[in-house]
Structure formats: structure tokens, C-alpha cells
């Protein structure tokens, strides 16, 4: 399993928080966003992005590395769409907000982590399951957990941001069946592309 030093964990968190501060400061609930970041900072900085070795960023600090990739990708995609003349682009603020927070549910419910280390050596060796779902939580998918955290911290979001986060796993999961070409908004596509691009880069990087 990839291991990041404390210095790298801190620097990644600072980079991520800097994006949030730079682009989301004008949001009316910024003070609550900041509270979420303060109270969940350690969980956000150390959570893995997935629990299986065969998935992406399955290591302590993986969530932040993935989130940084998604932010960079969505900014790039927005620029590209703009160059191609795509109309009614979502604001940069909205793009960075959904990219930075789309997976924050993987950091936990605010009181406990979403993933905990798998202690069964058999599961680690045979299945590559290095982390497991923390059953002390009420079960929610990680996208739902993100939306729950916004509710918990009184962070209001637009319907488009809600859809983008709720549906960001796209066609990979059956519960997104209702989100399709006729119902998805532009921000949702952009987050799906940015997320997918990040997954591919993360999987195929040395
Ligand atoms: Fe996700
Ligand atoms: Fe993601």
C-alpha cells in the first residue's frame, strides 16, 4: 500500500483547503463549510478514496489526492467547454465546490470514519481489501453521506449541485438509473467526466 508522510498529508490537505477558500469563500454558507473542514479535517486528510487495492487511491490520504485531481480536471474541462462554445457553463465556484466535496462522505459522518482498516489478514491478502466500511455508522452510500454532511453542517446547495454529487458515479451504479442523458445537467456531466478522468489517471499512473 502506498504510504504518504505526514508532511505530504498536511500539504495535500492545505492545497485542497486553499482551493475551497479561494473559490468557495463567496458562498453564503462559507462559514459552515469552514466548520465542516475544521471539524472533519483529520478525517478528510487521512481517509482512503476506496477500500480495495484494485480500486483507486486505496491508502491513507487517498481521498485528498483524488479530490485534488478531480478539482484540476473539472477546471480543465470547464476551460475546454468554454473554448468549444458550450453555453450556460456552471460557475467556477460551483465546479470547484462539487469537485472538492463530491466524495467527502468517504471521510465519515462527522463523528467517525467511513472506512476503517481491515484487520483480517485473509481479506487483505486474498481479496486486497485493505479497508472496510465502518458499521458503526448508519449505512449511506458515500454520495448520500456527502449530502448528509451538508445537511448536518447547514450548508445549502443548489439542485444542480445536489444532482451532480448524487449522480457522480454515473452508470457505474444501478441506483443512478434515473440520471440519464435526458435528466442530467451540465454540472453533473462535468463532475462525472472529471471524476472518471481522475480514476483512470490514478489507476494508470506508476
Ligand atoms: Fe465517488
Ligand atoms: Fe470521486
Q: How would you describe what is shown here?
A:
- The protein is mainly α and 206 residues long.
- It has one domain (6-204): Hypothetical protein af1432 (Orthogonal Bundle).
- The chain contains 8 helices and 2 strands, in the order ααααβαβααα.
- Strands 1-2 form a two-stranded antiparallel ribbon.
- The longest helix is centred in the middle third of the chain and has 22 residues, at 62-83.
- The two termini are 13 Å apart.
- The relative contact order is 0.15.
- The mean pLDDT is 95.
- The structure holds fe (ii) ion (FE2) (2 copies).
- One fe (ii) ion binds next to loops.
Class computed from helices, strands and strand pairing: mainly alpha
**Helical stretch tally:** 8
Cα shape: globular
Most strands sheet: 2 strands, antiparallel
Number of domains: 1
The CATH architecture can be named as Orthogonal Bundle
User: Helix proportion of residues, in percent?
Assistant: 40-55%
Low-confidence stretches: none
Assigned CATH class: Mainly Alpha
Could you give the distance between the termini?
Answer: 13 Å
> What is the chain-wise order of helices and strands?
HHHHEHEHHH
Bound molecules: fe (ii) ion
In angstroms, what is the radius of gyration? 16 Å
The percentage of residues in β strands lies in under 5%
Amino acid at each position: 500500500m502506498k504510504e504518504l508522510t505526514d508532511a505530504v498529508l498536511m500539504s495535500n490537505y492545505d492545497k485542497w483547503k486553499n482551493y475551497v477558500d479561494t473559490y468557495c469563500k463567496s458562498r453564503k454558507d462559507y462559514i459552515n463549510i469552514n466548520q465542516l473542514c475544521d471539524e472533519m479535517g483529520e478525517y478528510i486528510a487521512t481517509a482512503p478514496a476506496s477500500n480495495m487495492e484494485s480500486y483507486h487511491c486505496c491508502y491513507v490520504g487517498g481521498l485528498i489526492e483524488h479530490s485534488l485531481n478531480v478539482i484540476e480536471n473539472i477546471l480543465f474541462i470547464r476551460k475546454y467547454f468554454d473554448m468549444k462554445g458550450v453555453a450556460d457553463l456552471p460557475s467556477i465556484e460551483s465546479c470547484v465546490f462539487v469537485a472538492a466535496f463530491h466524495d467527502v462522505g468517504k471521510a465519515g459522518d462527522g463523528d467517525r470514519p467511513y472506512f476503517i482498516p481491515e484487520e483480517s489478514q485473509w481479506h487483505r491478502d486474498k481479496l486486497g481489501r485493505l479497508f472496510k466500511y465502518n458499521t458503526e455508522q448508519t449505512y449511506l452510500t458515500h454520495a448520500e453521506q456527502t449530502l448528509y454532511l451538508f445537511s448536518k453542517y447547514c450548508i445549502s446547495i443548489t439542485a444542480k449541485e445536489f444532482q451532480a454529487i448524487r449522480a457522480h458515479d454515473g452508470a457505474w451504479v444501478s441506483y443512478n438509473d434515473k440520471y440519464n442523458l435526458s435528466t442530467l445537467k451540465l454540472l453533473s456531466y462535468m463532475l462525472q467526466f472529471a471524476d472518471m478522468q481522475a480514476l483512470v489517471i490514478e489507476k494508470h499512473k506508476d
